[in-house]
From TrEMBL:
<dbReference type="InterPro" id="IPR002474">
    <property type="entry name" value="CarbamoylP_synth_ssu_N"/>
</dbReference>
<keyword id="KW-0665">Pyrimidine biosynthesis</keyword>
<feature type="active site">
    <location>
        <position position="338"/>
    </location>
</feature>
<dbReference type="GO" id="GO:0004088">
    <property type="term" value="F:carbamoyl-phosphate synthase (glutamine-hydrolyzing) activity"/>
</dbReference>
<feature type="binding site">
    <location>
        <position position="227"/>
    </location>
    <ligand>
        <name>L-glutamine</name>
    </ligand>
</feature>
<dbReference type="InterPro" id="IPR035686">
    <property type="entry name" value="CPSase_GATase1"/>
</dbReference>
<feature type="active site">
    <location>
        <position position="340"/>
    </location>
</feature>
<dbReference type="InterPro" id="IPR029062">
    <property type="entry name" value="Class_I_gatase-like"/>
</dbReference>
<protein>
    <recommendedName>
        <fullName>Carbamoyl phosphate synthase small chain</fullName>
        <ecNumber>6.3.5.5</ecNumber>
    </recommendedName>
</protein>
<feature type="domain" description="Carbamoyl-phosphate synthase small subunit N-terminal">
    <location>
        <begin position="1"/>
        <end position="131"/>
    </location>
</feature>
<comment type="subunit">
    <text>Composed of two chains; the small (or glutamine) chain promotes the hydrolysis of glutamine to ammonia, which is used by the large (or ammonia) chain to synthesize carbamoyl phosphate. Tetramer of heterodimers (alpha,beta)4.</text>
</comment>
<keyword id="KW-0547">Nucleotide-binding</keyword>
<comment type="similarity">
    <text>Belongs to the CarA family.</text>
</comment>
<keyword id="KW-0028">Amino-acid biosynthesis</keyword>
<keyword id="KW-0067">ATP-binding</keyword>
<dbReference type="InterPro" id="IPR017926">
    <property type="entry name" value="GATASE"/>
</dbReference>
<feature type="binding site">
    <location>
        <position position="255"/>
    </location>
    <ligand>
        <name>L-glutamine</name>
    </ligand>
</feature>
Amino acid sequence: MKGYLVLEDGTLFAGEGFGAPAVQAGEVVFNTGMTGYQEVVTDPSYYGQIVVMTYPLIGNYGVTLADGESRQPWIGGFVVKALCDRPSHWQAVGSLSDYLAQHGVPGLSGIDTRALTRHLRSHGTMRGVIATVADDAEPDQDQVAAWVEQARAFRMKDAVRRVTTPESYRIPGPGPRVVALDFGAKENILRELIARGCDVTVLPATATAEEVLALRPDGVVLTNGPGAPTDVPEAVATVRTLLARGDLPMFGICLGHQIAALALGARTYKLPYGHRGANHPVKELATGRVHITSQNHGYAVAAESLPPEVVVTHVSIHDGTVEGIAHRRLPLFTVQYHPEACPGPRENRYLFDRFLAMMARGAVSTCSA
């Protein structure tokens, strides 16, 4: 197959198609991770996005049964420099191309991903169309123009509603009762809670505060997810009601961090090209320590909009954006990055231990400021 990627500004990249023959519009973003492509394509936070991997060789260890972050791929398309079509790994059950083809996801290889990434860094995240077709004919000007219009017409709609669990479910455990509000949760968040003995109930993103409280939880986790936090006002309202109780420990991750900030009265804004990868340095202000983190977000919390009772706990070394907040009085803390990342740095898993300690203490803030 031949493959093409056209951006909304008319820039065209041509290469070899893999995965499914398809024409798909989406938001074109880049990820700087060196490994973890299966986790990327199955991360619900990438719903509706065409992901460009900056590391040049992708697919060399194939696809395994254990490495997915959800039940299926959620990306709109996948773009790589060099695709390995003969993977070698003792757990591999197939190739990346076959896996994407099975789930209807188009891919593009053989292009200059460095040039594409530099273009996105210079001009910001763009909408685009990825097209992989069996026909060897070159696209004419009319076809390219149609793709450009398709890219410009793309809008991210109902992202969280599409990836959240359709029904609640429980994973029993001997420890504290935790409700996870699923805005697009990665499986590893649940694994970290289960590993600590938590009795976990996962609720859809549309769950009300009353439904959460009916389960008598010891704590609530606000998970990651796709899109803009302002697109899920019902989730913001639920969190605001839960915070008003003043005694329910809460831990927010990524989109959950942004939703909590909105519930507290802060604002969020879209970053020029987002933070996506497994190598982002973040400074913890209370200790001065710098952690290497895994990230996947296109929006950030506006620090100047936070109310006085909320403090910034972590900041990005790259651009100074807010990477964590905590409430001075309420038992709430959140981080913008992914402490459950796998693959990626494991040093941030202590945050789950902090959440368990907060549940054990009850209605006591973890804020040290």
